[in-house]
Specification:
633 residues, alpha+beta, Phosphorylase Kinase, domain 1, Transferase(Phosphotransferase), domain 1, Serine Threonine Protein Phosphatase 5, Tetratricopeptide repeat, 3 domains, six-stranded mixed sheet, two-stranded antiparallel ribbon, 24 helices, globular
Length: 633
Amino acid sequence: MSDNINKQDTENKNEWINWIEEAIDKEHINYYEYKEFSNFQEIGEGSFGKVYRTNWKNLKKYFALKSFFSLNNVTVKEIVHELKIQRKIDYHDNIIRCHGITKFESTESHINNNYMLVMEYANNGSLRSYLEKNFGKLTWDDKYNMAYQLACAVSCLHNERIIHCDLHSGNILIHQNTIKLADFGLSKRIGASSNVQSKLFGIIPYVDPKSFRRQRNNNDQSTQIYSLNEKSDVYSVGVLLWEISSGQPPFYVKGQEYDVGLAIEILQGLRETVVPDTPENYLKIYTKCWDGEPDNRPTIYQVIDWLKAIITKTDTIIENLQSSGEQEINDVSSTNNSELQGELSRLIQNFNNINTKEINSIAAVSSKQEILSTEKYYNIEIDEINEFISKILNKGLELKLVKQQVIKYFNDYNINSQEIYNWLLNDQITSNSIFILGFFNFYGIIISKNYEKAFNLFINASKKNHILSEYFVGYCYRYGYGIIKDEKLAFEYYEEVANENYVIGQLEIGYCYENGIGIKKDYKNAFYWYEKASNKGNIMAIYNLGRCYLNGKGIEKDHNKAFELFKKSAEGEYSNGIIMLGFCYNHGIGTNINRQKAIELYEKSANLGNKLAKYNLALMYEHEDGITKDTYR
């Protein structure tokens, strides 16, 4: 029996290892040579292994290598799972980025296993250690922003139907005062098996107490285990919001560890004590989150809205959070009228006693608070606009359609673009603000297009390591927008973006290699970068990869593969992908000839503004091959 189990574990382990090796071979995962890393320093240890800070090649930039104690079936499965999740969410600024994987084969290393994940390095360590060192310096505004970033990171997971299941202050990292969510090895896709129960006593206070309760089925004596879900993450967020407010782990007693007794008390309703002077609206949010009944907890999107309302000091009412509002109203209603009049008289008298200097002082403080509130509001809006632009570009939206989508985004979220522009004129402190102002100038949003000003703003933001700005600098150099055309510099900027693991940069590098832009033509390298970007879902890269298979560029011709790639690109609504799919149907490339289907696809692409589709459509109209009368409508 034991031998059979071990054999099954070995087979499962080999299956996952084969998946990793195949993904490396096909360039689905970035592979780093272990010998190119240097200056190892251990910076952390978790339940699965250790984490090291290291340099790669001659770069001064740090990376984090995540190693594993034992390369068993569970561990290898975790590596695969984390890699798959990272491919879905690595666009978000509050998610720690996985750059790829490395493998160490010698048995003489201080790291005693094979696979290691190459991760983004967070210079301020975990949230727990950050709070220990810096809590005394944090204002409530700092705490609000940390809470808001955390909620945004979790919402990114939930948007992709992923739940984390293991949120605690030890695996939430801080990099340059920015929250970075990490460790997705225990995450689960919603709808899949999620019978995850932490056996680590160290995280008991963060775990949804519903998972502590097991119900036995009397009919078959089986045990029903609670399945963790999105509301389980919300519970953990509530505990973390309390921790951010207090600066210490929940139920912390020096020298004592958590035990099963604490789990039972939490299940029975025990919660941490509210820290004195905690703002009312903030404590209402986290107490709502850690409600014992999942149905009573808010969604993570509600949490974001409530935190945003606090940060921006708006008059937004947090619905269903009033724990004493009705009582306060009743108290006021029952107050004696004479008492109210007396109080009013005292207020008027006190007001008359205030001299002009004091009034001016109060006005100045009020004005300053209003300015700070406005600043926070616009900074949040600008960060979210930046994230939206990054997401649509990495998906492969054509640049000519980007302006249209950004304006639609403004309309959908009731964002006043004129107000944003006015704010940007006076606030060019953050790299995101500088970039968005450049973006407005580049696309002519609110103002007329000004490529020279746009280029200068992109350059300024790129000096602050703003990746999207580096991409647009490369684009300006490539086509001569606002600067003298320089294809070599364009390639260098694209390469920088590609090496940061941004899909849009990988796409452009492929195009440069294919067409000899700033670099010698190299079809194999073009194919390499197109495949890399297409593996992350970029519809333009998928189309270009299809062309490689169609024409035998950097790879042997494979019309069936080309057809499948054009079909996938077309499904992503890329106009060139649609027209090439029509071309395949028209000429029987990788599929049977179907001219009626071809005409439908040409029409669809033409309606998206594709001129070549209109030309092909005209040719088919002229010859009337395979076209029914209805097609002429």
